[in-house]
Amino acid sequence: MTKPCIICVAITGSVPTKANNPAVPITVPEQIESTHEAFEAGASIAHCHVRDDEGKPTSDPERFARLKEGIEAHCPGMIVQLSTGGRSGAGAERGGMLPLRPEMASLSVGSNNFPTRVYENPPDLVDWLAAEMTKYDVTPEVEAFDLSHIHQAVARHKAGQLPGKLYVQFVMGVKNAMPVDRDVFDYYVRTMERLAPEAEWCAAGVGPGQIVVNEWAIAAGGHTRT
Amino acid sequence: MTKPCIICVAITGSVPTKANNPAVPITVPEQIESTHEAFEAGASIAHCHVRDDEGKPTSDPERFARLKEGIEAHCPGMIVQLSTGGRSGAGAERGGMLPLRPEMASLSVGSNNFPTRVYENPPDLVDWLAAEMTKYDVTPEVEAFDLSHIHQAVARHKAGQLPGKLYVQFVMGVKNAMPVDRDVFDYYVRTMERLAPEAEWCAAGVGPGQIVVNEWAIAAGGHTRT
Ligand SMILES: [Zn+2]
Ligand SMILES: [Zn+2]
Ligand SMILES: [Zn+2]
Ligand SMILES: [Zn+2]
Q1: pLDDT reading at A79 higher than 60
Q2: Rounded distance, CA A211 to CA B65, Å?
Q3: Residue A181 and residue A147 in contact, taking contact as beta carbons nearer than 8 Å
Q4: Which residue from A37, A222, B101, B187 has the highest number of Cβ atoms inside 10 Å of its Cβ?
């Protein structure tokens, strides 16, 4: 038997609006139905962001709770992964939904540039988010926007700071961070094999890089993220 | 004939104090004499930071001017490289010495974590520093604290945003950024060969990693930084 590939569906990111694409699910009921469709099509992890009444990204725990509940009711067995990403809040706000005890949550372990600003993940915030995930038994998906983030993830996991199995996502194609580059992708895979052979990894490309990176990830034995 | 190795001496960083090591040159006259000794021992680039009267890092252009003048007088032919690093100032302050037209200046092109905080180099600040370097004909030494910084350096150089020959420094061993890792070092070298075969590169290790990384760099045909 070959190894199964996990499809993680990011139903709603923190950037696109209905104006960009009318199909983007923004309200919690829209998100639940969209996740349900993806679940029936084979997705097994839902990577979740929530929006406020104006459609802007938020870290509001109450919205996350409603979304989590809805997905659990409609998609039995699907893994709910809540985003602690920095586009939806600042500082400790970003971890305000962790007491909901989702099975997974995203975690950034380093800082990098984004298209127009710095994506700030200072070491003390990372420490705190990791400690909260440990407290509430939430397995992190570590977002690797650069190579050192993989090294930081492995070091933190070895130090017992990240609960559960190590799961790393390579993110490529964010402007001013790591571009979509096949050689780098292959090196990321080799780095995971070298430093953390027991871990799992997935990869995501942004915008036009999405399909490209998903194909690389599936062919290389990894998992995928839309 | 084999290729010469450039030794760049960082006489005074922005962190150590006389309390840590009484030999650290802090005043401008101490820095000039220390650089002179390194010059006579074979160093050909002086990477310069300056300190204020309390010994704290500063970006004060007047101090940089005195240091540059002194090095030029005592060390004929030595290349003066002034630091625009973020430990000595914030925002546009960091480039306040570029009108002095040093031959080189350090330039960070991405952000990353430092031991206790985020090293912030937002895209618009990088754009501005690069434009100032172009205006005053200053060749940047790009500080690569992570792999994507090499990609950003090459892309900016190809786009004509970085004057002079591309010169990249790999920095390893800063806590919470890239560790001292031989496999990564080799991949950095291959990445330079792949993306910018005409460029030059050097490498620096922090603290106990310094000698290790310098040896790797010399053996691999690169240049060194103390
Ligand atoms: Zn996300
Ligand atoms: Zn349904
Ligand atoms: Zn002298
Ligand atoms: Zn420096």
Answers
A1: yes
A2: 52
A3: no
A4: A222
DSSP at A41: T
A30: left (phi over 0), alpha (psi -120 to 50) or beta: alpha
Per DSSP, the three-state class of B205 is strand
Of the partner residues A112, A176, A178, the one whose CB lies closest to the CB of residue B112: A112
User: Six-digit token pair at B83?
Assistant: 């630091």
User: How far is the alpha carbon of B103 from chain A, nearest alpha carbon, in Å?
Assistant: 27
Provide the Cα torsion A139, A143, A149, A154; round to 10°: 20
3-state helix, strand, coil in chain B (%, to 5): 40, 20, 40
**A139, HSE (Cβ side, Cα atoms, 13 Å):** 14
The pLDDT of residue B2 is 79
Residues 6+ apart with CB under 8 A from A105: A81, A82, A83, A84, A97, A98, A133, A138, A139, A140, A141
Among B147, B176, B181, select the one facing A146 at the smallest CB separation: B147
| Domains of chain B as residue ranges with CATH | 7-225 (3.20.20.70)
pLDDT of residue B1: 57
CB A126 within 8 A of CB A140: no
- What pLDDT digit, counting tens, does each position of B100-153 carry? 999 999 999 999 999 999 999 999 999 999 999 999 999 999 999 999 999 999
Task: Please answer yes or no on whether A118 and B122 come within 8 Å at the CB atom.
Answer: yes
- Provide the token pair at A62: 């109450």
Pairing relationship of beta strands B57-58 and A112-113 according to DSSP bridges: unpaired
